[in-house]
Amino acid sequence: MNRVLDLLVSGCATAVLSPVMIGIAVAVKLESPGPAIYTQTRVGRGGRPFRVLKFRSMVQDADQQGPYFTAKGDPRVTRVGAVLRKTSLDELPQLVNVLRGEMSLVGPRPDVPAQRSLYDETEWRDRHRVRPGLTGLAQATLRSDATPQQRKALDLQYANEHNLLLDVKVLLLTVRQVLGRGSY
User: Where are the domains of the chain?
Assistant: First the structure.
């Protein structure tokens, strides 16, 4: 049932939001050199790597200029990127990841391989039993205020308790978070 919901919602959202996505791509390209879409290796279901898609919100080659995470005021974030991150519009290309089956609408946000060290073997296995999501329990409840420990606990909770009702709740809470306060 979740896969059908993923396909229906992400397919419709991609079609409806395509003019917005074209506008964002143009804005990203006009502000700074480099591609409009940024790809990065992430860890998916079963520990399989995949390339996550995002609108580029940082200067080109930002991943060589600092850590895999960002903090408030990170100088690598562009002006357009700051707006994209606050509104989560930088995540819209991940609708394609959902359509391809690499991600789901709801699940733990996909880890970069370097985050493997944050988990023991059982936690890593449990966390990757489900597809990573566009949004997750941590993003829906704590947004960017979550500590790494809180994010990990909520990701593991989701992986162990996921169901359609929880997914709907997470989606509704995410909308409230994004409309209410944004990412930063």
Answer: 2-180
